[in-house]
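hey
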């Protein structure tokens, strides 16, 4: 069944084997922007949103997501335990952040993330990172990968 876009038009029908994505971000604006971005990719479908209340791993299980996209605010430890819990439960995690440090990205990979996308590059990179994550392939934004550790 096709999804209606915010403009009232129809988005492409989602194939049965589409990657199921859960958006985990406490900011409504960011969830809406990510949802709109992913709407144009026929092989990716948003199955739910998590607003920062309750247990993220439970929300992922309830929605049957293949991949979780979550933000990780710079300078906080918040989120690392969520990454670990979701990854441990068998769901891939792609993190978005403005932090360009390879060491920072590595800490998130060590926690269980499989993808790391710079927030300001999500329009170009997020879909590829989600596809990679669903296939078990790590993704690191090229702008971070090219930086010294």
């Amino acid at each position: 069944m096709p999804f209606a876009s915010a403009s009232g038009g129809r988005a492409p029908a989602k194939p049965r084997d589409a990657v199921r994505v859960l958006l985990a971000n406490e900011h409504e604006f960011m969830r809406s922007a990510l949802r709109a971005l992913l709407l144009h990719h026929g092989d990716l479908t948003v199955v739910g949103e998590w607003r920062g209340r309750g247990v993220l791993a439970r929300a992922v299980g309830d929605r049957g997501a293949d991949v979780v996209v979550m933000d990780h605010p710079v300078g906080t430890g918040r989120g690392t335990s969520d990454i670990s819990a979701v990854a441990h439960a068998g769901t891939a995690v792609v993190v978005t952040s403005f932090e360009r440090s390879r060491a920072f990205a590595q800490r998130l990979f060590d926690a269980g993330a499989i993808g790391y996308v710079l927030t300001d590059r999500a329009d170009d990179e997020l879909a590829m990172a989600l596809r990679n994550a669903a296939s078990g392939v790590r993704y690191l934004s090229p702008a971070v990968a090219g930086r010294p550790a």
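Helices lie at 28-38, 56-63, 80-88, 102-111, 122-134, 142-145. The domain at 19-145 is CATH 3.40.50.2300 (Rossmann fold).
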